[in-house]
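Minutes, methods subgroup
Present: GH (chair), OT, SY

1. OT presented the first of two proteins processed in the latest run. Sequence and structure tokens recorded below as shown on screen.
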Amino acid sequence: MVSHQLEIEGIAQSVAAPGFTVNGVAVTTDANTEFRDNNGEPIGSAAFFQAAASGPPVKVRGVLVGNVVLAERAELED
């Protein structure tokens, strides 16, 4: 299977750990995902999911596996 690196930005929807959608694209996270706050500082996954559920934009960098992005990094944006 071929995987493709990509980056997507937008409002996280259907937020429920370990996943969410951005612009209709399914995103999942795992133990290797780095979570960052809007200052680029590391935060825990629970803090990320709690904040993402309230609607700030997010940026996700990861690998497309099938039709789901496996996030290497998930960041809150301003």
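2. SY then presented the second protein from the same run.
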Amino acid sequence: MFTFEFSISVNRQQQEVFDFVSNPANDAQWQSSNISNELTSEGSVGVGSTMRSVDKLLGRKVESTTEVTVWDPPNQYAIKSIGGPFPFEITMTLESKEEGTQLTASGQAEFGGFFKLVEGLVGKQ
């Protein structure tokens, strides 16, 4: 299992940062691997909302479905995969600072299934 955590300071108000990172339509603007992300459930984003995303990893398009597991504006937002080649969970925690907002992203992913998929694709070439 792969785990990660990183933080970044953003010179914006906490609510503004939360609104941006929790909006699936913005993902391609701040996630370099993201090609598209769309809300697939009805209503506004909240716990239980689902999204379909397309990312480019190792030169291949990878589709996944995620579900919002934590919705605590403007403090925390979390998602987990519920469909796709590898399971993952990501939590974004926001904290107001004097100079703006500190965004900390942490998560984990299990790449076993993903690398089996890549191995299968490479073997077909």
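Chair's summary of item 2: The mean pLDDT is 89.
Next meeting: continue with the remaining queue.
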